[in-house]
Amino acid sequence: MAERTDPTQKTNHPFYCQYRAVYEYATQFTQEQRVLDIGCGEGYGAHLLAQHAKEVVAIDKDRKTIQQAKRRYDLSNLNFHVHDISELRGHFLHSFDVVCCFHVIEHLENPEQFLAKVAKRLSNPSGVLLISTPNRHSQFRLSTGLHWPYHEREYTTNGFRDLLSTSFKDLTLYTLQASSTVHQFQNIRAQHIQQIFRWDILKMRHWLPNRLLRFSFNVGGTLLKLFIGATHSDLIHSITTADFHVTEKQLHEGLDLIAVCRTPWNTVEK
pTM of the entire structure? Predict the structure, then answer.
């Protein structure tokens, strides 16, 4: 599936490095903390956090993905659960010191409501939400005009800040910048996507039912990964997490937007 990044698949390597780099950044906030990882996906990020945290609870709505994560990553302080991330109910009503939510918010129909629930999961005003989302103004997005059919919306820097400000008083925005090697890989992807879109003379991607659009993206994305993996294998496998870094500079140009959020409004009102 296009929205899952299995690290065991060689063609996923650049994306795995990109997503893991954000988790590596997050570990500085999770030392001896109780952490909730919302939308944990394949589980490699939660496993990394658990090597630093007191406890990690990792949730995802996909049962098969969670079962696989349980088999791959076995630590005494790491617990995986199948859970609808839009609900956050049951034993997830307990508080956490840190909440991580990476590449999730863009999938939600009611992000403001979701953020209000997340804010209530933080144990006190010093609790931290670490959240990321694709940057709508990244060079790759602008060069392809690509609209990802799994996303309800994608955010600009200002839009992301405005959204987060509905639930948090204090927040700092960062961006995930990449090396020239990663940009070379992204440019190759963009060129192939542009070539594919040239065949779409009738612009069918703009009016196809979402189910068919997702299917075409899954098939097309898989084939594109295989083709680039076969023709640019050395480039792909030269990429590491060191090719990505989190910075406050050039916010509008990064691959992803990242925010560190503190002081939920509900604690201010108290």
Answer: 0.89
